[in-house]
Amino acid sequence: MRPTACLLLSLLFAGAVRAELLLIPATSVVADGGLIEVTLVVPNDSSKEELAVDLPARLTLRTRGVPAAPDIVLTPDESQPMQVRIKPGAFLRARYSGSLPEGLAGNLVLEPVDFEGSSLGISVTESGVAKPTLTDQPAPSGNAKVGAASAAVGLSDRDTARFMTAFSPYEPNYIIAGSSGPTTAKFQVSMKFRLFNPDSKPPFLDKLYLAYSQTSIWDIGSSSSPFYDTNYRPSFFFLDEDISRWPYRNSSRFGFQAGFEHESNGQEGTASRSLNIAYVRPTFTLPFGDRHFVSISPKIYTYFAEDDNPDIAYYRGYCDFLVKAGAPDGIQLATTLRKGTGSDPYSVQLDFSYPLKTATLGNLGGYLHLQYFDGYGETLLDYNRKVQPQFRIGLMITR
Fold it and tell me: Which ranges of 103-183 would DSSP assign to H, the alpha helix?
């Protein structure tokens, strides 16, 4: 049995004792390719029973939202005993360290792979020496109270920490503007929420999500600047971003998503549009070159209860084909293709993004975003109408 699995089992089943693991970075700024150090905090929340723990021989961290990034493997200090016992109301701190893969520059969120634990937020500099921002103090003894542990790691509210780590971006978030005929702005907000904690039983529950996406076209060129159309897309789905690894390199992955999605524009009468789909979405991510990747992600769906637009398959078809290529923290190009069952209807959307956090631009967040759309149905209101080609530019917050 893997050591990390032993740690999980001991925490879950040792005398009905439950413990939430916390990961604390030694510094919030790390150099590209440099050393990353974390402290694993294991509290014993029981007031009566001692907790026996087999510490993992390694910790594996994954970069959220960067599918091609290799996993980060941390190992414990040589002086750290691997089999420990924690007294009731006390906690243990263990130091782990490892090398950060080269090429991951910017603000990153690192998530533990093998167990439930807090995410780490770090900033990776492109060159030079990282400057620590957290004081590196000696670890307290295992007899300290859990309240002292919480203060030491800077978390005064565990519920808030659980709540925040359950939220993550879903589809790209951006705001862009351009003119092809009338001047319009387009923005999209998209988030997902993990319904169950990762230590839930049965284990597939921690891969169930609720998501909400909203895409709006804003007619800023008109005198009253009305919203032309807004599409609302709540969804419920199963998502496993790493079902298996391909044998080529560590950054090759296969993911799978399946669920239900509702889409409507909230209007009435002849302008009303709505549809419901059930879908599956496999995602294949492969490396190429030195630090680049390509991902292929077809979203295959079927319709039900599309009373407002019963001919939508003629214009939209049954598949959205997404291809992304680029560097995890560099330039990326995403292409979304859609072909209706009719001979003419189609749509193509190109999204180019370039990170703004560079030496020449300073400490800017987000990405420069260029988007091109051509074909039918940029919004649900126009699902059966071909629009003029649209070119817009703006800010992408997450991609």
Answer: 146-153, 158-166
Q: How far is CA 239 from CA 83, 234, 276, 286, in A?
A: 34, 15, 19, 19
Task: Tell me the DSSP string of 201-243.
Answer: SSGGGGGEEEEEEEEEEE-TTSTT--EEEEEEEEEEEEEEEEE
Lowest mean pLDDT among 226-235, 304-313, 369-378, 383-392: 304-313
Question: How many angstroms separate the CA atoms of 60 and 240, rounded?
Answer: 17
Say how far apart CA 254 and CA 337 lie, in whole Å: 21
CA angle 323–332–227, rounded 5-degree value: 80
Tokens representing 80 are 């750290």
Tens digit of each residue's pLDDT (9 = 90 or more) over 269-293: 889 999 999 999 999 998 887 778 9
Domains along the chain with CATH numbers:
3-163 (2.60.40.10), 170-398 (2.40.230.10)
Asked if 373 contacts 390 with a C-beta cutoff of 8 angstroms, the reply is yes
Q: What is the pTM of this model?
A: 0.65
pLDDT in tens, 343-374: 999 999 999 999 887 667 666 778 999 999 99
**CA dist 131 to 103, 125, 368, Å?**
19, 10, 27
CB within 8 Å of 311: residues ≥ 6 apart: 384
Q: Summarize pLDDT for 307-350 with one digit per residue, the tens.
A: 789 999 999 999 999 999 998 878 999 999 999 999 999 999 99
220-243: average pLDDT? 90
DSSP conformation class of 161: H
CA distance 300 to 258: 9
Tokens of 321: 């084909």
